[in-house]
Specification:
Elements lengths: L1 H14 L14 E3 L6 E4 L2 E4 H10 L4 H34 L5 H40 L4 E6 L4 E6 L1
Antiparallel strand pairs: 1-2, 2-3, 4-5
């Protein structure tokens, strides 16, 4: 009974911070994390996939933004390779059970599982780099415009900062 109550307390503490929808900030680039494909929403346009992301980020000319995007691409490709290799290794390991090679089978299953975990890690890091690129893009292009009134000894002026 104690474990059931403890489980529900832990579950409620995790679930209490969840929200149903991601907030989209108007006027800024918003990255929505999805498994396939990742989406960027900017100026009422949805960008999907690497070719559209490439157009968006290379327009900025900022080396940091482009570098984060390239890290995203390399991590995504590495993650997909590890996931594919893990799936194949796992299938071969399961197939080895029928031939009385249980030691080899368990080794292949373990290797396939570890490869899939590594692939998931690289995919997560790729999403993190894409989020970094979006944040850098927003810092570069979404500066606050200010309008103020300047008052001198004998003059009055309007100042606009872009």
């Amino acid at each position: 009974m104690k474990y059931t109550i403890l489980f529900f307390i832990v579950l409620i503490s995790f679930v209490s911070n969840l929200s149903a929808q991601q907030a989209l900030v108007p006027g800024k680039m918003n990255y929505t994390m999805m498994t396939k494909p990742n989406n960027i929403i900017y100026n009422d346009t949805i960008y999907k996939g690497s070719s559209q992301f490439k157009q968006l980020f290379y327009k900025s000319g900022n080396g940091e933004i482009i570098g984060s995007y390239q890290k995203h691409q390399s991590n995504k490709i590495t993650g997909q390779i590890f996931n594919f290799a893990g799936a194949i290794t796992l299938l071969i390991g399961v197939n080895q059970f029928s031939g009385n090679n249980t030691g080899t089978a368990w080794t292949l299953i373990g290797a396939g599982f570890l490869s899939s975990v590594a692939g998931g890690y690289f995919n997560l890091m790729g999403q993190r780099h894409l989020l970094t690129a979006v944040d850098l893009f927003n810092q570069q292009y979404n500066k606050k415009q200010t309008v103020s009134v300047g008052v001198g000894n004998q003059s009055l002026g309007l100042v606009v900062k872009w």
